[in-house]
Design goal:
Layout: H1 7-12, H2 16-28, E1 38-41, E2 47-54, E3 58-66, E4 78-86, E5 92-97, H3 98-117, E6 125-128, H4 132-145, E7 149-153, H5 157-169, E8 173-176, H6 180-183, E9 189-192, E10 197-201, E11 210-213, E12 222-224, H7 226-235, E13 236-240, H8 245-248, H9 250-254, H10 265-270, E14 280-284, H11 289-301
Parallel strand pairs: 6-7, 6-9, 7-8, 9-11, 10-12, 11-14, 13-14
Antiparallel strand pairs: 1-2, 2-3, 3-4, 4-5
Helix pairs in contact: 2-3, 2-11, 3-4, 3-11
Amino acid sequence: MTILLTPEETAAVLPWQGLVDELRLVALDASVKVPARLVQPLAQGANLLIMPALDSDTAITKLITHTPANADKGRPTIQGDVIIFDVATGQRLKMLDGPTVTARRTAAVSALAARELASQPKGPLLVVGAGVQGKAHIEAFAAVLGTQQVMIASRSDASAQALARHAQSLGLKASVVQDANAALADCALTVTCTPASSVVLSSLPKGDSFISAVGAFTPKMIELSADLCRHFTRHGRVVVDTIDALHEAGDLLQAGLDPSAYPNLADILKEKKRLNRTGCVLFKSCGWAGWDLAAARLALKA
């Protein structure tokens, strides 16, 4: 059996619809346990992340580095692996490409949240950030939600144009916009997937907008202005991906908001705090090793 999967092989065992379905199962699985992840600072703003998770059958650890400075040097900002073990025997079963797992499970979580919460889950979609996550979100939203129209905003016009061409190759209507805040009014769905070094969205959304903010996963990172975050608390809804957002949702924390006050995605799926499909929704995604466990479980099924 092949143990170490390449990025291409990892993507092949994580089809979008199957991944979304497995994410839902993990969110509802009472046997899933996810210890707090370790984020070890490295030189020049980089981090080493160690993220374990397990259920009754499978245990995983994701070991990745996040090196923002690589973005300007043509190197990947996320590197590493997801190691899968059998709980009963301790045997190492597979090793998945870490950046591929991260990109696909993050985009699939956004698609799952949009499917459950968005008033208009088919879009149009605004993607702020034209990197790996921007590409993954376009693919996931098209495959899972049937999104047909995409607008792309990025600080790099070349990256935005390349991503637009990729979206067009998928059969989507895609265009590049210079002002993400102006485009927000025309899009029912928005995803912010930037390095989260500064605010990229500050305009107030229309009444039925859905925003998935995925770039910020530490208290010091930010993509959304404080006024925008507070707008959702007053005029819409806020949902976090997991309870771990309590310590990691930089957008909310810097707006003076308590992430523990909001329902998480598992609450929504369990219908304990079901929300109506009306009004604007902010989904704050910080990442969780449980989502990596879902990818591992799907990979083992393949």
